[in-house]
């Protein structure tokens, strides 16, 4: 569907399409400042989505914008399923080589929609405790999939956070591969404040992201806000930018670096990094040996090696879609 939408919109004006008030060049190189401005959407969500705005700032980069700015991008029931559809499509879309995620409006996200979502979680159905519990577990597993699809997507996901990232927002960003933020950003593992233990990823992934278990414990047990500088020093984000415009330009630059390289190398790297994080060194080494016994046979290797011998960037070569 995503591919179809993009094809239709690219047909409507050759090589250039206007989505949600911004000019997006397909197959053309735009200066990153221009693209960064274009990435800040003015319109609404992109149908059939109601909470996401999808655009293509370049041919191989997809921008997924959380788009409920009037509700601070709070995650309602539509969002929880739209993310799964969106990322499953991106996983299959060979045109897309890297994804950038950001939030529209004043801040990145206020976390779970407390009006819409809590009702469905707090009104379980079932004839007895066993059946009610079974149903709740199924619901939680389904919600977990909303962010696990980011990790399962073989294309690297760069997330750009401005303003605030609350509750489920932290669950979400810990499933992303590269995290950037603005100087005004703050992060809050808020779940304990609404009476629950975070259950959609933070408690499992944040300790793998931040080196200090003590800091993770403190953040999760007290729900205190962590500001940009501490997010950087603790390793939650890798870069802090002065404002959103600079961050989006930076996100796009990083995405461009990734998109220009061999997708066989890039996707294999993401998959093996995640595997290595979840397994022993010995298991990880075995996994990559099995992985590369087929992937080393790619023509991309010769092309990239040739570029290195010519003292050129691997980006000077063209790699087939994967
Ligand atoms: C089994 C479940 C698994 C998942 C669990 C996840 C848990 C969590 O995510 S816990 C965190 C929940 N979120 C919060 O507690 C944040 C609540 N919001 C705020 O504190 C503030 O809105 C915020 C500091 C983020 C921004 O403040 P600001 O002054 O900029 O905006 P507001 O005027 O407060 O809000 C504007 C409109 O947005 C609505 N809204 C904001 N957050 C939420 C939310 N989380 N859920 C639903 N709606 C939200 C707010 O009501 C305003 O709407 P309106 O009055 O219609 O203008």
UniProtKB/TrEMBL annotation:
Gene3D superfamilies reported for this sequence: 2-enoyl-CoA Hydratase, Chain A, domain 1, Lyase 2-enoyl-coa Hydratase, Chain A, domain 2
GO molecular function, one term: delta(3,5)-delta(2,4)-dienoyl-CoA isomerase activity
Superkingdom of the source species: Eukaryota
GO terms classed as biological process: fatty acid beta-oxidation
Reaction equations catalysed: (3E,5Z)-octadienoyl-CoA = (2E,4E)-octadienoyl-CoA; (3E,5Z,8Z,11Z,14Z)-eicosapentaenoyl-CoA = (2E,4E,8Z,11Z,14Z)-eicosapentaenoyl-CoA
Signal peptide: none
Record-linked InterPro entries: ClpP/crotonase-like_dom_sf, Ech1-like, Enoyl-CoA_hydra/iso, Enoyl-CoA_hydra_C
UniProt keyword list: Acetylation, Fatty acid metabolism, Isomerase, Lipid metabolism, Peroxisome
Main location: other
GO CC, any one term: peroxisome
Compartments in which it is found: Peroxisome
Pathway membership, UniProt: Lipid metabolism; fatty acid beta-oxidation
Assigned protein family: Belongs to the enoyl-CoA hydratase/isomerase family.
Function (record text): Isomerization of 3-trans,5-cis-dienoyl-CoA to 2-trans,4-trans-dienoyl-CoA.
Listed name of the protein: Delta(3,5)-Delta(2,4)-dienoyl-CoA isomerase, mitochondrial
Originating species: Oreochromis niloticus
Gene: ECH1
């Amino acid at each position: 569907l995503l591919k179809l939408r993009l094809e239709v919109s690219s047909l409507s004006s050759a090589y250039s399409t206007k989505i949600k008030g911004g000019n997006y060049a397909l197959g053309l190189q735009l200066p990153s400042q221009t693209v960064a401005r274009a990435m800040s959407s003015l319109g609404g969500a992109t149908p059939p989505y109601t909470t996401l705005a999808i655009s293509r700032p370049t041919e191989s980069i997809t921008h997924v914008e959380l788009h409920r700015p009037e509700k601070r991008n709070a995650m309602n029931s539509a969002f929880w399923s739209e993310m799964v559809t969106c990322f499953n499509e991106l996983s299959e879309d060979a045109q897309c080589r890297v994804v950038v995620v950001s939030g529209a409006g004043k801040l990145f996200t206020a976390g779970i929609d407390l009006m819409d979502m809590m009702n469905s979680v707090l009104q379980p159905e079932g004839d007895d405790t066993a059946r009610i519990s079974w149903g709740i577990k199924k619901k939680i597993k389904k919600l977990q999939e909303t962010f696990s699809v980011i990790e399962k997507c073989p294309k690297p996901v760069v997330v750009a956070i401005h303003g605030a990232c609350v509750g489920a927002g932290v669950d979400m960003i810990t499933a992303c591969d590269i995290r950037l933020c603005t100087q005004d950003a703050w992060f809050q593992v808020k779940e304990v404040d609404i009476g629950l233990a975070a259950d959609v990823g933070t408690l499992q992934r944040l300790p793998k992201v931040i080196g200090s278990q003590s800091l993770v414990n403190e953040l999760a047990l007290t729900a205190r806000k962590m500001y940009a500088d501490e997010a950087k020093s603790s390793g939650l984000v890798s870069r802090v930018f002065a404002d959103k415009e600079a961050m989006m330009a930076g996100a796009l630059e990083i995405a461009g670096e990734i998109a220009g390289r061999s997708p066989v190398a890039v996707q294999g790297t993401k998959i093996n990094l995640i595997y290595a994080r979840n397994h022993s060194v010995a298991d990880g080494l075995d996994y990559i040996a099995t992985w590369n016994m087929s992937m080393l046979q790619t023509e991309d290797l010769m092309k990239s090696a040739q570029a290195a011998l010519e003292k050129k960037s691997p980006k000077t070569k063209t790699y087939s879609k994967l």
